[in-house]
C-alpha cells in the first residue's frame, strides 16, 4: 500500500514488514491475531484515538482482510473517518467501506448520509471520493438515492471536468448494475450534448455512458449520431499536435475514436446527407492513414492505429449489412487493407483480419475483392502455427466459396484435412460436405469428395454426412452407376473406415447390379468383398450389411445359397444383440419361403427420398451460430442453398382395431362418443344414408394456429391434417379415415381448382377404396408465389352404401404459415422498427379482451413469430419478429402488443417491409384474440 506509506504511517509499515518476514503460515496467523487483539483493545478502551490513529488501525484491518482473513469489527470507526476533512482519512474510510461492506449492511444508511454530504461539498476531491464509493458499492439503494443527484453533477456547467468524468462513469456503473435506473426526459438531450464538451476526458467518459443508454433506448438517444460524427470528424482531421494531451504515440485520441465508432454501430447510417458525407470522409481518412508510413517504430503506435482501423471497418460492415448505400469503394479498400494483414508477423492482426474478411465476403460489393486473397488464405491455412488463426482461415475459405472457385477450395481443404488439428477436423468435414453439395455441377465430383472425406477423416464424419450422400445418389439416376463403381473400388483399400463400409453397403445393395456385368465386380466378388469387412464392424453396421446381403438375393439369385450360409452362422442366428439376430432369422426365412416375385416386391429398389433441408448445415449452425448466420445472411446464394426442400411428413398413428377406433388419425382431437358411431344393420343396409356436412369452418379455425389436427368430421369420414411449412414451401399429408362399418368405394379427392391466386398446389392420387376402419393418405405440395394467398379447395367424393356423396372443404393454407420466426436483440428490433414508418407498412388495431393477454394465450409462435424476451423496455408489452417467405421474395415483420391494464384494452401493431403485408397478417391474427 504505497500511498499509505507515503503518508508516514510507520506502524502500518512495520506490521507489513513483520508479515512478510514470517517463515510459516502459523507464524503469520499468530502475528495477525496479536495485531487484531491490539486493535480491538484500542477501539474499545481508548476513547482518545485521533484521526491519524483510527486511519492507521483501519488500514491494518484492511490489509489483514486482503490477506484472506475475516474482519468482524472496525466498521463503525471506518464510517467515522468519512466525516473527517482530511483527504487521507476520508480516503481510507471510503476504501474500507467499498471493500468490506455489502449493500445489506446495517451501516449503509449512515454511509449514504455521509456520501450525500460529500456530494454537496465544494471540495471536488471529496465529491470524487463519494462518486467512487457509489460506483464501487453499486447497490439498488444507492442507485435510487442518487439517481437524480449524479446527472445534475454531470450536466452542471459549474462542475469541474474531473468531477464530470467521475459522475459519468459512476452513472454508467449504476445503469449496468440496475436495469431500471436510467436518466430520462430532460436529462437525455443534456447528456447527449456532453459530446460537444471541450474537455476530451469528459467526452470519453460520456461516450461510454451514452453507448450504454443507446443500447437500452435507441430511439431516445438517436440524436447522438450527428454529434458523434461531428466529434469523430474533428479528431480524424486534427493532427497529433492539436490534441497533444490526448495523443498516444502519434495517434490522436485512439480510445475516444474507438468508442465513437462503436457508438455509431448502434444506429443505421445517418439520413442527413451532410452528416452521412462527413462520416464517409472520416472512414475514408482512416483507411488512408492505414496506408501511410508509420510515424513511430514503437509497437504502441501500430497497435493504436490498427485498433481504430478495425473499428472503422466494423462500422463499414455494419452499414453494409443494414442495406445502407455504403460507398462500394470503402468496402473494397477495407478488404484490400485487411489483405495486407494476412501475412503480418503479429498473430492477433492475422486473426482479426481473417475474422473481418469473413464478414466482408458476404457483401456483393466486396466478395470479389475477398476472393483475390484466396491463395494467401490457403497458405495461412497450411503454414500458420496458431490453431485459432487456422480456424478463422477455414471460416474465410467457406465464406468466399462460390461456383467459380468451389472445386479449388474444396480440394485445398481436403488436402489440409489430412494434417489438420483434431480440434477443427469435425467442423472442416461439415463445411467440405456442405460446399461439395451446394456447388456440385457434376455429382460424380460430389461422390468423389465425400468418399475422400470419409477416407481422410472417417472418425470425424458424422452419420448425417453419409446419410446425405446416400440420399443424393438414390435421387439421381445419372450418378448411381458411378457411385457403385467408386465405393466398390474404395472397399478394396487395405484400411477401410467403417463409415465407408456403411456407404458401400447401402449403395451396392441398391445399385450393385449396375456394375455386376464386369467380372472384376461380379455378384460374388461384391459379396465377398463386403463380407470381408463384416467381422471388423460394429453391430449397427453388421445389421446394415445383413440388409445388403438380402438385397443381393433379389439382385443376384445365383449367390443365394452363399448368402443363406452366412445368415445361418451361429454368430448371427444366436447373436446376443436382438436386432442383428432378428434380422438374420427373418431374412433367412424370407429367402427360403418367398417366391422370386414376392422377393422382388419386398426387396425392391428404394424409392427416391423426399428432398429435405440439409441436416449437415443444421449441425454447423448449432456449432457456430454467429459465424454461419453472418455468412448466410447477406450471401443470397448461400441462403438458398441452406434449405433444399421439405422433409416428408411423419406417418400417422394407426388405431389398433376398427371396433375400438376413436380417433383414426391419432391427431388428438375430441373423442367421438360410442353413440355417435354408425352401427351396421344388414337388414337395412341399402337404405342406410348419412348426411355429410359441407363446411369445415370449425376445423379450419382450429388449424389456423396448428399444423396438425382434424380438419373435417362426420359420421362416415374423418379428415385429418399433418403439415409442415418451411420458408416458401409446404407439404401437407391429408388422412382420410373411414369411420363407418362398410367400405367406401370410388373414393376421389382432388383439388377443385389448380389455378389459384398467390399459390401453387399439387396433390397426389389417393386409393379409390377405403376399407372399414382404415385410412388412406394423400400428399399435397404447396408453394407460396405471392403475398395474397387464396385457400385451396379440396373436392371429395365417394360412394357410401351405393349412395354417392360429394362435398368440398378448404385446406388450412394461410399467409402466416410461411412466416418463419427470427430472434434479435433490442438494438436490432428497434432499429428496424423505426425504419418501417410508412402508412402502408404498418397496421394497428385496438381491441378489448376479457382476460389478460400473455405469450401463451396469444400463441405468437403459432403464427410463426419468434417471441422476443426482454426486448421491450415495458415488460408488459409482447414483442415478436419473423420473416415471411414467398417465391417473390422475403418480407420482414415486427409485432408489438401493448396492454392498457386499467381500461382492459390492447393495441396490436404490426409493421412489414412490404406494403400491405402487415394488414394481411393482422386480419389473420385478430379473430384469435
TrEMBL record:
Membrane topology term: Peripheral membrane protein
Main localization category: membrane
Keywords, in A-Z order: Coated pit, Endocytosis, Membrane, Protein transport, Transport
Localisation: Membrane, Coated pit
Binding site for a 1,2-diacyl-sn-glycero-3-phospho-(1D-myo-inositol-3,4,5-trisphosphate): 10-11, 42, 52, 56-60
Pfam family, one: Alpha_adaptinC2
The keyword Transcription appears for this protein: no
GO cellular component term of the entry, any: AP-2 adaptor complex
Domain Clathrin adaptor alpha/beta/gamma-adaptin appendage Ig-like subdomain: 701-812
GO molecular function, one term: clathrin adaptor activity
InterPro entries xref list: Adaptor_Complx_Large_Subunit, AP2_complex_asu, ARM-like, ARM-type_fold, Clathrin/coatomer_adapt-like_N, Clathrin_a-adaptin_app_sub_C, Clathrin_a/b/g-adaptin_app_Ig, Clathrin_app_Ig-like_sf
GO biological process, one term: clathrin-dependent endocytosis
Protein role: Adaptins are components of the adaptor complexes which link clathrin to receptors in coated vesicles. Clathrin-associated protein complexes are believed to interact with the cytoplasmic tails of membrane proteins, leading to their selection and concentration.
Similarity section: Belongs to the adaptor complexes large subunit family.
Alphabetized PANTHER family for the sequence: ADAPTIN, ALPHA/GAMMA/EPSILON (PTHR22780)
Protein name (Swiss-Prot/TrEMBL): AP-2 complex subunit alpha
Organism: Galendromus occidentalis (western predatory mite)
